[in-house]
Inverse folding.
C-alpha cells in the first residue's frame, strides 16, 4: 500500500478519477474510463468506505487505484489494504514513519493471515497450486 501525506494529495477533476460520495452505491457507479476512485472517510468511526472498496474490488472487479481520503489514521491501514485500497492519504496530523511501521508490522502477511480478503481471496493455508483434493 502506498502512503501519501495530506499535502501530496490532489483532487483531480477529470473523467479518469471518480470521487465517490460516502453514501453512494458503488455497484451503480459508472466505471467506464475510470483509473482512480477516491473514497472518503468523513471521520475515523465511519467505515462505509471500507465496504465501498470491497464491493468495487470483489463485485465490480475494479483493477485501478482505490484511494482512501479524509480522516485516515495509521491504525486503519492494514484493514484498508485488506479491503482493497491501494493508496491512503494520511490525515494531516499523522506521522508517515509511524504509519509505515504500523503497516509493516501487521501480521496479516504471514502466519496471521488465515482468511482471504478483497485482493487475495485465498486463505493463507490454501496453496494456490493445490488441486481439489479432500
Amino acid at each position: 500500500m502506498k502512503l501519501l501525506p495530506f499535502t501530496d494529495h490532489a483532487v483531480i477533476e477529470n473523467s479518469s478519477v471518480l470521487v465517490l460520495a460516502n453514501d453512494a452505491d458503488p455497484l451503480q457507479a459508472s466505471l467506464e474510463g475510470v483509473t482512480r476512485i477516491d473514497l472518503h472517510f468523513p471521520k475515523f468511526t465511519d467505515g462505509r468506505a471500507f465496504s465501498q472498496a470491497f464491493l468495487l474490488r470483489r463485485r465490480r472487479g475494479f483493477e485501478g487505484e482505490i484511494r482512501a481520503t479524509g480522516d485516515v489514521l495509521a491504525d486503519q491501514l492494514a484493514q484498508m489494504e485488506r479491503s482493497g485500497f491501494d493508496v491512503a492519504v494520511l490525515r494531516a496530523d499523522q506521522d508517515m514513519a509511524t504509519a509505515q511501521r504500523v503497516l509493516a508490522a501487521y501480521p496479516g502477511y504471514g502466519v496471521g493471515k488465515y482468511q482471504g480478503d478483497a485482493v487475495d481471496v485465498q486463505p493463507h493455508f490454501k496453496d494456490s497450486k493445490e488441486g481439489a483434493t479432500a
User: Anything to note?
Assistant: The chain is about 20% helix and 15% strand. The two ends are 35 Å apart (CA to CA).
